[in-house]
Amino acid sequence: MTKSIDCYLWMNSDWAYLGADRLAALAQRHGATVRYMPVDLPAVYARTGGVLLPLRAPERQAYRVAELRRWCRRLGIHVNPQPKFMCPDATLASCIVIAAGAVGHDVVPLYKAILHAQWCADLDISSPQTLSDILQACGLDAPTLISQARTDQVARSYAALTDRAVSAGVFGSPSYVFRDELFWGQDRLDFLEAAVAKSD
User: Fold this and answer.
1) Range 109-122 average pLDDT
2) Other residues' Cβ atoms within 10 Å of the Cβ of residue 77
3) Taking the alpha carbons of 58, 47, 94, 161 in that order, is the dihedral positive or negative?
4) Integer Cα distance of 189 and 13 in angstroms
5) Which domain holds residue 174?
6) What's the number of domains the chain is made of?
7) Cβ-proximal residues to 91 (8 Å cutoff; 6+ apart), any chain
């Protein structure tokens, strides 16, 4: 049976960035494929009881920073917990990733580059110019993909992926689903790998 992992992620998710390389390596070790599904996390939160970061209690916000710093040290990855452009509108970035995947591009370098831009380079990923620069750096046709990302068809796909996430039980990013089992967070990748390995 084909082993396929669904990865639901928000294009503003620092945690998705921390888990990106380990997810790809996990899939390669076990001959699994990963379907990357950008979702509108604020819409997911609205339907599942989540609270956007700026609205959380100061104690919860402070703990997020502490956890990020711990994980960055453990993984040897730099992330700025409070970047210059904190969680801007991710709609266009998400739709670009969807459009790229729809025409067969490997979206892993692209979504990682977008996340890196926000969390490591203090860039505004809601800016079409920033996204154009990222696409070009990834060797992709920026004008074409940005144009495709703005179509009604891609907008419908984005909404459908968000609906699919909620139907799968997703309430945060990143979330991984393997054979109907949900794993929330990059700190659950070990559990995901155990499930994938058991299916070998």
Assistant:
1) 98
2) 16
3) positive
4) 16
5) 4-198
6) 1
7) 40, 126, 158
